[in-house]
Specification:
Number of helices: 6
Structural class: alpha+beta
Distance between the termini: 27 Å
Largest sheet: 5 strands, mixed
Radius of gyration: 21 Å
Low-confidence stretches: 241-246
Shape: globular
Number of domains: 2
Mean pLDDT: 82
CATH architecture of the largest domain: 2-Layer Sandwich
CATH class of the largest domain: Alpha Beta
Strand content: 5-15%
CATH topology of the largest domain: Heat Shock Protein 90
CATH superfamily of the largest domain: Histidine kinase-like ATPase, C-terminal domain
Helix content: 40-55%
Order of helices and strands: HHHEHEEHEEHEE
């Protein structure tokens, strides 16, 4: 303990090495578990297709639980791999139009659900020096969340904006179901959910990925919300450029 206090840089280096080792182990385990999981899913499907009629009602229900569990675990493994890839990716900062990225994401969302009527406000001129690929992932996750959690609301309004502060603060705001700020500390943890999967489907890694991307850029992310009064996610970039190392 005394040695760590006397050599804080050494302690931070050891902590970073431990984090990298844990990330590598997580990636390896998640990657290697996909093969046996595919085997479980494949044989369960074969059993359902070939022998389903010979099973009674309870047997078919149990088998469906196996299939549902395999699919859920597959989504979780893919989420873990996605989080690990964000840490492994090299940053290539360039001047990027976040307005253009947001418009592209919204176009894809509208194409997927053409029957929905959603007002989306994205002013021109929202820009940043950042990695375009990673910020596309981040804005895609934030806008997908806003799109998802406004489902069933009328009217629906989603806004993307930038506050001209130093550093600049970017935000994605919606008038959806919102959440209780008492549980805000759970937002950015992998597989943490404030709403049940039955209410709103999803793997539960989107905001965790966004936080990692923002941190890779030396920024921070936070939220403001209230139940039935929507949510706003704010983030900064390049607050601390030295923190942008993988």
């Amino acid at each position: 303990m005394a040695d760590e206090q006397a050599n804080p840089e050494k302690s931070l280096t050891a902590l970073e090495e431990s984090r990298r080792e844990l990330e590598s182990l997580t990636y390896t385990i998640a990657h290697d578990l996909r093969a046996p999981l595919r085997t479980i899913d494949g044989f369960a499907r074969a059993l359902s297709e070939d022998c389903g009629e010979r099973l009674d009602e309870d047997g078919r229900r149990y088998l469906q639980h196996v299939l549902d569990g395999a699919q859920r675990m597959a989504r979780m493994l893919e989420g873990l791999l996605s989080l690990a890839r964000i840490h492994r990716a090299e940053l290539h900062p360039t001047p990027v139009s976040l307005s253009r990225i947001a418009h592209d994401v919204v176009e894809r969302l509208r194409a997927a659900e053409p029957s929905r009527s959603v007002e989306v406000v994205v002013p021109d001129g929202i820009a940043a020096d950042c990695d375009a690929s990673l910020l596309t992932i981040a804005l895609d996750a934030l806008l997908q969340n806003a799109w998802k959690f406004t489902r069933g609301r009328n009217p629906v309004r989603i806004e993307v904006g930038m506050q001209s502060t130093t550093p600049a603060v970017y935000f994605v705001r919606d008038n959806g179901v919102g959440f209780d700020m008492r549980y805000a500390d759970k937002l950015f943890g992998p597989f943490q959910r404030l709403h049940s999967e039955r209410e709103f489907a999803g793997a539960g890694v989107g905001l965790a990925a966004v936080q990692r991307i923002i941190r890779r850029h030396g920024g921070r992310i936070w939220a403001d919300a209230a139940p039935d009064h929507g949510a706003t996610f704010y983030f900064t970039l390049n607050d601390n450029p030295e923190a942008s190392a993988p």
